[in-house]
Amino acid sequence: MIGIAVVGYGYWGPNLVRNLADIPDARLIHVCDIRKERLTPIQARYPTVAVTDDLEEVLRDPRVDAIAIATPVSTHFKIAMKALMAGKHVFVEKPMAATTEEARRLVDEAARRGLKLAVDHTFVHTGAVRKMREIVEDGLGDMYYYDSVRVNLGLFQHDVSVIWDLAVHDLSIMDYVLREKPVAVSATGMSHVLGEPENIAYLNLFFESRLIAHIHVNWLAPVKVRRTLIGGSSKMIVYDDLEPSEKIKVYDKGITLNGGPHTNGDVYQMLVGYRTGDMYAPQLDMTEALNRELRQFISCVENNEQPVADGHAGLRVVRILEAATQSLAQRGRVVELGQARMIA
Amino acid sequence: MIGIAVVGYGYWGPNLVRNLADIPDARLIHVCDIRKERLTPIQARYPTVAVTDDLEEVLRDPRVDAIAIATPVSTHFKIAMKALMAGKHVFVEKPMAATTEEARRLVDEAARRGLKLAVDHTFVHTGAVRKMREIVEDGLGDMYYYDSVRVNLGLFQHDVSVIWDLAVHDLSIMDYVLREKPVAVSATGMSHVLGEPENIAYLNLFFESRLIAHIHVNWLAPVKVRRTLIGGSSKMIVYDDLEPSEKIKVYDKGITLNGGPHTNGDVYQMLVGYRTGDMYAPQLDMTEALNRELRQFISCVENNEQPVADGHAGLRVVRILEAATQSLAQRGRVVELGQARMIA
Amino acid sequence: MIGIAVVGYGYWGPNLVRNLADIPDARLIHVCDIRKERLTPIQARYPTVAVTDDLEEVLRDPRVDAIAIATPVSTHFKIAMKALMAGKHVFVEKPMAATTEEARRLVDEAARRGLKLAVDHTFVHTGAVRKMREIVEDGLGDMYYYDSVRVNLGLFQHDVSVIWDLAVHDLSIMDYVLREKPVAVSATGMSHVLGEPENIAYLNLFFESRLIAHIHVNWLAPVKVRRTLIGGSSKMIVYDDLEPSEKIKVYDKGITLNGGPHTNGDVYQMLVGYRTGDMYAPQLDMTEALNRELRQFISCVENNEQPVADGHAGLRVVRILEAATQSLAQRGRVVELGQARMIA
Amino acid sequence: MIGIAVVGYGYWGPNLVRNLADIPDARLIHVCDIRKERLTPIQARYPTVAVTDDLEEVLRDPRVDAIAIATPVSTHFKIAMKALMAGKHVFVEKPMAATTEEARRLVDEAARRGLKLAVDHTFVHTGAVRKMREIVEDGLGDMYYYDSVRVNLGLFQHDVSVIWDLAVHDLSIMDYVLREKPVAVSATGMSHVLGEPENIAYLNLFFESRLIAHIHVNWLAPVKVRRTLIGGSSKMIVYDDLEPSEKIKVYDKGITLNGGPHTNGDVYQMLVGYRTGDMYAPQLDMTEALNRELRQFISCVENNEQPVADGHAGLRVVRILEAATQSLAQRGRVVELGQARMIA
Known about the structure:
The structure is a homotetramer.
Chain A: E1 2-7, H1 13-20, E2 26-32, H2 40-45, E3 50-52, H3 55-60, E4 66-69, H4 73-85, E5 89-93, H5 100-113, E6 117-120, H6 127-138, E7 143-153, H7 162-177, E8 184-190, E9 200-206, E10 212-218, E11 220-232, E12 236-240, E13 248-264, E14 267-281, H8 289-303, H9 311-328, E15 335-336
Parallel strand pairs in A: 1-2, 1-4, 2-3, 4-5, 5-6, 7-10
Antiparallel strand pairs in A: 7-11, 8-9, 8-15, 9-10, 11-12, 12-13, 13-14
Helix pairs in contact in A: 1-8, 4-5, 5-9, 7-9
């Protein structure tokens, strides 16, 4: 039995509380928010859970093994670091931190203390994304591209751009699904409201291979689109998260390169043929992702195992977000993602 | 009655011939192709039309007022220039030429001789694109973005990249629909077949205003997508060319900025509100675009009027294609589009 | 303030409880279910609400003004009649009763005692159906047809056929949206599981005018469809309940009858022309239907007003369900719906 | 080499001519239409083909082995019978004849003379329908239902109802795809234009097994739908003819009956479980159906083989159309389809 506390009871906190209250191996001990009035409904619904606006009280409680953090991004580092230093395992909302430096310090601190550090990359626990990784691992041939569109008329964030709000999902999915990690990033975008962060952005991700990735995010689109295309030389995937059941479609489509280069005038060219075959939509596990994710986190703490989306994953994603933000300010200058350690 | 000759009888030439044969004010005199065997079926179908593999013969014929060119891009300049120098009006496939320099010389030559130079930007003659321009001219409020996706499992071109093959459509539509012209471009992309041109590409177009444009083209997508989003502060448009009848949808959606900037902590921010209203799909003219376009060209020659897609439009599009190609070779370096004259 | 009790805490009861607990003018006093163990979670969540397995206790309580019934259909009559005889207003799940005779007796009893009798035709409180009624009242020209498809891989009911489970929704919507009431019904269908009720059925509804209605319901379809077409001489509506936002589309499409009858050989015929115009999708109120409905019921009790879906509506729907069931047993024999009083 | 003549050059005749002119084993000799002015373009396009308004001349020509008939339905019998009596093989548009009696006499005459009689059930030669038959033959488990919707804003026919115009397609597909033949039919519908035939209709088809079939056809729908659902106990098919490539989807979905009947109170019931698995969309042959069909007819004549859609198929379909028309006039009275011979 793992004792856990939730810190931050705004938009996402209630989902953590609801799921944690249901997990047999977890015991939800505290819910903490500086806006104490928000905590009133918890007492009625979960009489055994203590509520408080005092984080120190939570961190001092020896029954608490782990902290789940659902506060604004700018506070992640401070709270997570305190928790680690108090010897608590940490589960933190995405993005894991506001800067690469913060993220790296959290990773290091958790490693030094032998504590679990997990980041809430919820999508990697959905049936759709897990199936997609499975298919990619079985092989699509040579990887060609990863293209994602995530747009809708969405809530403007005042503190972070659309990249930190929406592209973070795609980056966490890519980090989980693709074997290869990007080596550089560029981004363009625009803010259409004076004084507000960018509400539309386009990211390019470069890899050492010929793989190319692109992400389009937009808070001001008239229609909602959640579609990812993954192209390989032997298979291609369409992942449409708005489809009620057939979210993943696998196409036996592509090109075939026949007979090697040939001469057309004085230029050597490949003979390119086309292949179209069946499409199939595999059945997906429909378990609620957050529930699965929290159970896994609890189990990792209990059994000293590594979470799927660990601090390293969180760091890699934050590194890209930071680099994309730099690039955006310079009309798409390519920013190298750098050291092997960070992208291990 | 305008005498006309078609030069080039490959993929597109037959469409020109079929339509020109039906236009009352046009008289189709010659069809010319260096692959003479291709011309045989014309004689059976159109006994009054002469066929030849000799371009000079066509250009010498005083009954010929205008030449319609449907040959490979690399030959456009040479044939069009010869035609202009022979005093013929010119209608040429898109892209108008292989380089900006060629395009500019054609524009100058036509101007010097008082001849019509039209480029076959077919889409700008569709009911959908014409309606879209009408809506944009009526006003979408401040223009925010123009985003187009044009992907499918398409025929690899060996001589030009996917930008010259597919993005040319989007650039010609943008040139027609938007009042503002781009001032710079960047592009990323990749070739996945050794020795072949890029088969996937992403273009960014920068404007003097806060308008941002983006085009995604791909020959290797498992599904066909032809979708353009245009966002403005008061209205937004979705143009889906694969919809059988409701190709254009206009959304009364957007954000409203209330009460001016307010203070949140120490940052000034706008109060952003959301507006959703009705959507409507206007009825569209379903006339075949090419037919309409050729009638208009004939009429412009007869009445000394300017075609909708004239040499200047052709030049502006070629300039962007060329700049995007340069940018692509440098991982998305921004290329300025330069002189006012070119983008007039 | 209206005191209310919920009877039946199975599939739907929790939704009634959740909504009633939120309505300022209602005071939820009891929740009653014969399966007492089901009631445990209520005490934790709603400490002020009494739980019981004894209906008589509820009916004796003078604080209770109204009873909301969410028990199996076969028990609706007995419980609702008891409630009326105890002087309580009644809100009952659809279908209102298991037979026309039962439904009629409830209507009569409520009328005799001056009590409100409302039936939970939830759909008539959705923004989509309310908008549809508004458009129909504004006029579609002559009414041609009402066609609905409601199919999916759905839960088999053991006690009622797919008609009582699914077609009841369409019948309640039709009753609300159309001005005219059907005069006869026929139905075909089949049970594919031995000993179980019909899992697929087709209903025809006949009217005095040339309006024709048809409903297709199916528990064993591989895909989910929820689509209604309403055709009139001047406008047509498509209502697709699976569309996330544009559930209602109004088409300015139809035929025009020109110049009166003409002679073709020896047969008089109309000259039929086609009209296609714009389509629009009106913005819809997205309030939760059940919440709106319960507020309205409470308000009707308080202010002695008639609910939108009153006992007469419930009776009309049950009458059609009963007749359709008779018809189904006779391969679609037409069953007249009969007396004016019932279909008033 | 088979000599062939086309009789009737209205809407469909040009398609027959275009395809027959391309088939190596066929020699198109005559095209015949009583509206002689319609035949002028043929002479320019196909100089070796004779045109005439005199059917007798065609039938007397010994070079003519077979006649393809594309005239109005009311004339099929007379022309086909003359052709058979002149010793010509016959290919006739659907529906094969205007009455069952006519259809039966054609079948008998062809059999007596050892001539081929084929009916143009074009859909059964499409890749989609052929694949569907293949999947049904491989087995869907017990057959549950066949449900088709074929609606759009379509051309009013003045001589036949929507059943003869649209449902004929579904009946010909069902005849080809299902192993079982219907034993009875009922139909409801309505004419919304005075003096015109029914423009909306619903057909029920009854079988000896628990299979049930239903067809909805409508000339006055605001949207185009072409969708067929086939349900079986182990698999289900969705055939959507408007999908550009994935027209056929096969679902591994259904119910499972576990453990035999159980007692619930005093009623025996099955334990019904649900099964959902993968979906797949098989690749389809995209050959033009009419071309394939005509090649097959020519080959059947040459090699004395039976066409897929022979006179018996044509007769079965006409028998159902006739019975449905009778039923329609009586608000859906069930009409038995009768003798084994007709439905063999």
